[in-house]
Amino acid sequence: MESPPRKIIHIDMDAFYASVEQRDEPELRGKPIAVGGGGPRGVVATASYEARVFGVKSAMPGARARRLCPDLIFVKPRFDAYRTVSAQVREIFSRFTDIIQPLSLDEAYLDVTSDKLGLASATIVAEEIRRMIREETGLTASAGVSYNKLIAKLASDQNKPDGICVVRPGEGADFMATMPVRRIHGVGPVTAQRMHALGIETGADLRSRDLAFLQQHFGSAAPFYYRAARGEDDRPVHERQERKSVSVEDTFLEDLITREMLVAEVDRIAQSLWGRIEKSGAYGRTVVLKIKFADFRIITRSRSMAAPVRSPELLAETARALLLAQLPLRMGARLLGLGVHNLDQDEDAEAGQQLSFPL
């Protein structure tokens, strides 16, 4: 017997942190705001759509965001408020299915192959979820509906904000063909640049390369890219995945050599990591620094605490100390990474076949 076909929905709240702030503070509505730090070393966690038209984006340094949008209003994050709303949204999901995989406070996969209400289509389920979110939280969400996780996630971003995109059986390969490779989940910025250098700009370009070619240039990741270009993805929706770590890393176009450049990057990565920690509610006792050198040699250094790290200042201070203990470096660094392990997670925080029935 073949496994039953799947109906997968990806729900993504629109500019979540910023939207919560604008909902709760009427004077912020219609204005360009950024949730995060506006200081010299601050980082944008989320920008409102009014700010995004100026080019302000998540993970952007606060100083650059201010240059792009001089009228930008920075708002300090209120993660307790975001978690409260996230719990409301999660409860709405649970009315339709128990197979829910949260990715963060503001997005999740849902497997509604057999939804609790017995609705005929996943599109109807997604529209009902969006309606309930709007009515019960005052916020909007976008949805992607498809037969696998890869396409559902990409689809949820197609008609943002407050939109829905449905990719039906038989449409997956065509949907992927026009997709820029940099947008495919699992293709990072450095890999996208390598693909562009090989003449691979879109999913169609990727599909035109055989598996041997992709293995030659991308190693163990090649089978994923080969199947992704064809709209194939058989990963299941996991009901609750226990995080083992939270991390951020960045590969540089030019190797970092000087103390000033290295410290500045570690500070920036620590800010970005703190945003992910707060977003997932996963606080760790061990801070880990990763350095990849110009010759691709990798070292890691760590420091463990008696209690979980619960402030951005302590995280940045620990990361800086781990880095400074390694200076001067034997050669330039092409990658820096920072993570927390030995997590003490909040209880309520987490970080195939074609369909033969209508989506």
From TrEMBL:
Domain UmuC: 8-188
Organism: Sphingobium herbicidovorans (strain ATCC 700291 / DSM 11019 / CCUG 56400 / KCTC 2939 / LMG 18315 / NBRC 16415 / MH) (Sphingomonas herbicidovorans)
Protein name (database record): DNA polymerase IV
Tagged with keyword Ubl conjugation: no
Major localization listed first in the record, in broad terms: cytoplasm
Alphabetical keyword list: Cytoplasm, DNA damage, DNA repair, DNA replication, DNA-binding, DNA-directed DNA polymerase, Magnesium, Metal-binding, Mutator protein, Nucleotidyltransferase, Transferase
An MF annotation (GO) of this entry: magnesium ion binding
Enzyme Commission designation: 2.7.7.7
Record GO biological process: DNA repair; DNA-templated DNA replication; error-prone translesion synthesis; SOS response
Cofactor: Mg(2+)
Tagged with keyword DNA damage: yes
